[in-house]
Design brief:
Largest sheet: 2 strands, antiparallel
Shape: globular
Distance between the termini: 18 Å
Number of domains: 3
Structural class: mainly alpha
Length: about 750
């Protein structure tokens, strides 16, 4: 806990030295730190509250809400500060052991039960805000209602805090957890939610003023459409329902489902929290190998770490070489001379396949594999597969599948372009023409991604001399595709349309941040559905898509933009990591995951798809963040400095209460590691194929994107002269010092 307090002190110093205006990036960093430190304090609060059922339930609810908030890509500052109100109240559990519980048990029971209900209500509000109101214009129109909700949660939390303090004050000296100034600071920050600060918001505010008030706007579809247009967006059927509903009705509609999920989640979060101290002691008393779930790999990891002077993360190449001697094969059946998965040995013996396995494990692509990454890799093994089969699939089956699927996508794009161009030529409606042109630009951009094999020199014949069981590999490939099919269909529906960004959230539990795992097969499914939608049910009908209106063209385009946005964002994150490591970005792009990002990177670096990329980056503004003010910055919220200071004090008290459970631990500096690797292959089959099949439509554009190499910050240490050894031409550098979760 000492290190956590030092980090808070550093954050306070940085905030105190900063100007009254700051960048959006700094704002995001600050809110993330606050959430992390509150979460740390909650873990200790639960250790103290364990003997009190009423307090324990509320603490676990707060823990789950924090876990959900931290899992979100972007956090709203106005929501984050409310967690401070909850935390300062819940951290009063540190005084429970000093009080005569029999005399005040009834009052405390009632207070913590009420607090639990408030936090559940807040969780529903946060869920609706982040998922159902994700679009910028929807959030703007609902901001005033959310502001009132958040202020209510804050005031009620502090009211309960005062009641708990009053009950405890007769038995023990209670340090005041919050003052009226604390409440004012939080309410002041929350009040920023409905304020119009960007040009778009100010323009929208003028429309609202002309229409009357916000209630009139929410019920007027024409006015809603005008405001959406100001934000560069359109109204969907879902957003109409959301805006027409009163916020309380909307929250009530989603409450039951959220509470059910929350209750289920608290069962697992209880186990996580209750095992917190024991987990830390395991880390203190033994090496990282004890955190490996698989027993055989645990021993292997221990031996490797010992030989590497105790480094917590292993180079992927070392791990894979050692894995050849460790893999647990299937048991023999009947009179079989060998296990059924013995065929995988013929794949493992070829070192050229090892980089692909390493990429599948190393989700941040640093060239090092942490315990967390390795456990996560094994956890997602399809049911019925053995570990050798899992390794064999990622060694060979996945890339062959993606190579073939890329050709299928190219075929679909050209067929859809033909239909779209015909529709464009035959319509006289300006809105339809504009929507089709936007759709064609995005389709053309998809072809840049399918050119990855040309950019990397991938040779599809490189496995011809490898004596592996093709039927077994095909079985694994089909089973893997089938296991994801239902999930993909849930995301896209029958018509290949994704109206809301939140629909992609269903991919996160299975794939995490690894867009490269789902992008190609999901795009294939979307394009197949969209082509079917364009052609209609009647195969004999003209292929001119005359029945598709401008809204439908827009949503087909928006769907592909969402998928491209995820792919582009993932690539930019990787580029930042390689830039920090001082690695050659082009080499790493051509290497990582078989070079899947190579085609997109080529177009990105050359500027040939700059119009689409500009649209994707504007999409990020409208979907995920509050836009910057007109001068490019956002208002400073210095009150958060004081909130962090209060949090520091609360965590300090909690630390003292459980100090006997923990030994002092020196935790390595956090390093936001990012990915790397390469296949030494050749071939220009895709380029020749595409040159022969390209349709009439092509996107124009030129220029060089100035940020093609990415940028970023990193706390880790890297030595440029450290020689990589991951096979082929994959580059590495230096020593990775991971975060606590990695070892």
């Amino acid at each position: 806990m000492e290190e956590a307090l030092n980090k808070v002190n550093k954050l306070i110093a940085e905030e105190g030295a900063s100007s009254k205006r700051k960048t959006k990036e700094k704002s995001n960093q600050r809110t993330r730190k606050i959430l992390e430190y509150i979460q740390q304090g909650v873990a200790f609060a639960d250790a103290i509250a364990g003997m009190n059922d009423y307090a324990g339930v509320a603490v676990k609810t707060l823990a789950k809400l924090l876990e959900c908030e931290i899992a979100r890509r972007k956090n709203s500052e106005e929501f984050v500060v409310v967690y401070q109100a909850f935390a300062s109240t819940m951290f009063l559990v540190r005084y429970l052991e000093q009080a005569d519980m029999e005399d005040i048990q009834g009052e405390l029971d009632h207070c913590f039960d009420e607090m639990n209900n408030i936090m559940q209500d807040f969780g529903v509000s946060a869920e609706v805000y982040y998922t159902k109101c994700r679009r910028a214009f929807v959030r703007f129109l609902k901001a005033k209602a959310f502001e009132e909700e958040l202020k209510g949660f804050t005031e009620r939390a502090y009211e309960i805090q005062e009641r708990i303090q009053s009950a405890l004050s007769s038995y023990t000296a209670v340090t005041v957890a919050a003052t009226s100034e604390d409440i004012k600071r939080i309410l002041s920050i929350v009040s920023n939610l409905p304020k119009a600060t960007t040009k778009q918001e100010k323009d929208a505010e003028k429309i609202i003023q002309e229409a009357g008030d916000i209630e009139d706007v929410d019920m007027n579809d024409a006015t809603i459409a005008a405001i959406a247009k100001v934000f560069g967006d359109r109204v969907t059927s879902e957003t109409k329902v959301i805006l027409h509903q009163d916020l309380h009705e909307l929250l009530e509609k989603h409450r039951e489902n959220f509470i059910t999920k929350l209750n289920e989640a608290t069962l697992t979060i209880s186990t996580k929290i209750e095992g917190f101290q024991g987990e830390v002691m395991r880390k203190l008393n033994s090496g990282p190998h004890n955190l490996i779930d698989n027993e055989e790999f645990k021993k292997m990891w221990q031996d490797l770490v010992s030989s590497m002077a105790g480094k917590p993360a292993l180079k992927a190449s070392y791990l894979l070489m050692a894995s050849n001697n460790v893999n647990t094969f299937a048991e023999q059946n009947g009179n079989e001379h060998f296990p059924r998965d013995n065929w995988t040995l013929s794949v493992f013996t070829y070192v050229m396949f090892h980089p692909a396995i390493g990429d599948a494990i190393d989700d941040d692509g640093s060239g090092y594999v942490s315990v967390r990454e390795f456990n996560n890799f094994l956890k997602h093994k399809p049911e019925g597969w053995t570990v050798p089969e899992l390794f064999a699939f990622w060694a060979l089956g996945w890339q062959v599948s993606v190579y073939n699927t890329s050709f299928e996508i190219a075929e679909l794009v050209w067929e859809i372009e033909e239909v779209a161009l015909t529709a464009k030529a035959e319509t006289q409606e300006g809105d339809v023409v504009a929507a089709i042109e936007a759709y064609l630009r995005v389709l053309n951009a998809l072809l840049d991604i399918t050119r990855w094999s040309t950019a990397t020199g991938y040779d599809e014949t490189f496995t011809e001399d490898v004596p592996y069981n093709h039927e077994e590999m095909e079985r694994l490939t089909e089973e893997y595709a089938t296991s994801n099919q239902e999930l993909f269909h849930e995301v896209t529906g029958d018509d290949g349309i994704i109206e809301e960004y939140s629909s992609l959230d269903g991919l996160t539990p299975r794939f995490g941040s690894r867009v490269e795992l789902w992008f190609i097969p999901l795009v294939l499914e979307v394009l197949q559905s969209q082509l079917h939608k364009l052609l209609g049910e009647d195969d004999s009908a003209p292929r001119n898509a005359a029945h598709i209106n401008d809204d439908e063209w827009f949503y087909m385009c928006f769907t592909l933009e969402l998928l491209l946005f995820e792919f582009h964002t993932r690539m930019k994150n990787l580029l930042r990591g390689w830039h920090v490591q001082k690695l050659d970005s082009r080499l790493q792009v051509n290497s990582f995951f078989g070079g899947l990002f190579a085609g997109w990177f080529e177009a990105y670096a050359s500027g040939s798809n700059k119009k689409v990329i500009a649209q994707l980056e504007s999409l990020e503004e409208s979907l995920e963040e509050d836009e910057p003010e007109e001068d490019g910055s956002t208002p400073e919220a210095p009150d958060l400095v004081a909130l962090v200071s209060d949090l520091q004090e609360s965590v300090k008290h909690l630390t003292a209460m459980v100090q006997s459970l923990l030994e002092k631990q020196a935790t390595p500096a956090t390093n936001d590691r990012q990915p790397t690797y390469q296949a030494n292959t050749r071939g220009d089959n895709m380029q020749a194929y595409q040159n022969n099949r390209r349709g009439q439509y092509s996107n124009s554009g030129n220029g060089q994107d100035s940020d093609s190499n990415g940028d970023g910050d990193d706390d880790g240490e890297y030595n440029d002269d450290d020689e990589g050894s991951y096979g082929g031409t994959r580059q590495y550098s230096g020593t990775y010092t991971g975060n606590e979760d990695d070892y």
